[in-house]
């Protein structure tokens, strides 16, 4: 008997390499700056509960029955109108409700990527997106960025190489760097896409969480050809546990994404869809966002203060206008992957090492810190401990 | 500018060809025997609502937060113990909670199938599984069956050909034929898998819905090597709208399926998982299953009576011991794909033509009828109308 072999695709897919270490971070006595988790005290539990009661009493059998793969029709209509109001012209037929925005990365890869097709990404970028593209045996083409987002000269050069089919960007409060691409660059990105016939996935989970500065139009709002596909999620705004996101795309593309949906989880869970729709429709979402923005802004500012107070002088970090993360570069050749188990086991504080975000394998001295999940006390104490262990390692080097 | 091309994979994936016609069947004045929908009056709305209230009051922030990709730990433990009690030995680490069982077909294809790899399926089989395998550019190897399930000589011949890597079967109350594979054949299937080193996905969404005869052990219960992967779902037992299923597999395989989960919807929605777990844990599920079995048995028997009463004499159908479907073969060269729009538009009654279930493109004179969704009155009236239009077409041929 021979043993069945796994596919090339799945052998190509790394799990999250630091996953096992981070499982330790889930213990309650650990102060975690690791995941991209919303604050546990930000969840609108009572409102969710009231809405579910009303929905089940009014439409119980409909909600517990199968739904359509495209999503709840009235929710698609709502999102199309809302997106159009934001400058992203969309009809309800151009909106698909998904089980979070991560699923959209998978559907886009499924719809467009043959093995060997190139995907241009920022270096660093969202590590789970890298995993998806690897799982489709794509060639990842990392290009560098700076405080103004992706380097447009490098982007055009990569596009002109003929190797790329898709561009994946998080233009607003990028994960992990927190960087936001300015308006002029957004226009230029669309010109490059159109010039070279590339498709782009604009991943936008964080833009509503803005603590300073002015909102920017989405890259998709400048798109006239439909080459930009836009996805967002309610995970950071209402609840990730409900698994509700959406994508808007040109109709022919959307039909292919719907095929992906039909072949995987058939449709997004109805309770999640309907609760989120009621949050939108009843005007509960906007004041809720204002509330969490006030909370997260304080936590961001506190963590920035703690960076100044506790980190060694040569450490650098960004001051993000929104999102959930600070991005740190450490001095003195500190390897953050090696630092993590020490930080967790001895100091009871967790973060994400930067390396997995880099498609080119660099970033050994960087780390991502989340400021939404820990309490203010946890942020103060955790940053003190983290700074302490970093300084100690530097001293002994 | 060139236009980005879709992947070979997605161009290979047909949507449900009869989808547009069936959208008409969703209108309320249509009597639908088409989908595999549970009865709308079977849903335990009040119990679901009470459980959600308790859960949100007790553990609201935990439920609205991200969960682990593997699923809620206590639910995995419960399922492992329950499966072990059913002869399917499993540890909690060998169980993954999924967004329905359809998703497991996708994850298995992702984990095992390179383009061109062969998948042995029954002819006919579940049409959405065929779509998944096509979306992975697999070679579908259809083998015939009869009232005893898959033909074992054909299965061994296909296995021996060296072209196949995976076997996909619905051994209990197969979709669409309703056929159940006997115990001796189940043992023989495992022998063939082990002899030729094939992996098998046992898709088992219907086995708990048994109206007559005795329960059979799963194919997986005879598996000593871990080459059989077993999936089931709570869609037909509690609610499809909550999207909760599960898979159990040998640990190395399960880890690959978890990678699939991480790359797609990250984890199954928490409310659905927790409600289903409470149904299991509190002993609500078993009496609920007894209740829907009593209802569906009556509906099956009524539909069988109506077949006798209204269908032309040469029509044949199965008498399924469980599940949700009757499978009909019509006389006189009637093409059921052509019949469908006439049945819907003129007679306001819907079914699924048999052809899409056949990987070899045959089955033009067959159809699948669902008996769980329509009311008894609907079954009586719909079958009368369906029999009438079939007889009329036969007369005019």
Q: Can you give keywords for this protein?
A:
13 helices; alpha/beta; 2 domains; homodimer; four-stranded antiparallel beta sheet; 397 residues; Aspartate Aminotransferase, domain 2; Aspartate Aminotransferase, domain 1; 14 strands; eight-stranded mixed beta sheet
> CATH H-level name of the largest domain in chain A... which superfamily?
Type I PLP-dependent aspartate aminotransferase-like (Major domain)
Radius of gyration of chain A: 21 Å
Largest sheet of chain A: 8 strands, mixed
Q: What pattern of helices and strands is seen along the backbone of chain A?
A: HHEHHEHEHEEHEHEEEHHHEEHEEEH
Low-confidence stretches of chain A: none
What's the architecture of the largest domain in chain A, going by CATH? 3-Layer(aba) Sandwich
How many helix segments of chain A?
Answer: 13
Looking at the chains present, what oligomeric state does this protein adopt?
homodimer
Given this structure, which CATH class of the largest domain in chain A is correct?
Alpha Beta
Instruction: Please give the order of strands in the largest beta sheet of chain A.
Output: 2-9-8-7-6-3-4-5
Secondary structure elements and pairings:
The structure is a homodimer of 397-residue chains.
Chain A: H1 8-11, H2 19-25, E1 31-32, H3 45-64, H4 73-85, E2 95-98, H5 102-112, E3 118-123, H6 127-135, E4 139-146, E5 149-150, H7 152-160, E6 164-169, H8 183-196, E7 199-203, E8 228-233, E9 245-248, H9 251-263, H10 270-281, H11 285-310, E10 316-317, E11 325-329, H12 336-347, E12 349-350, E13 352-353, E14 366-370, H13 376-396
Parallel strand pairs in A: 1-12, 3-4, 3-6, 6-7, 7-8
Antiparallel strand pairs in A: 2-9, 4-5, 8-9, 10-11, 11-14, 13-14
Helix pairs in contact in A: 2-12, 3-10, 5-6, 5-9, 7-8, 11-13, 12-13
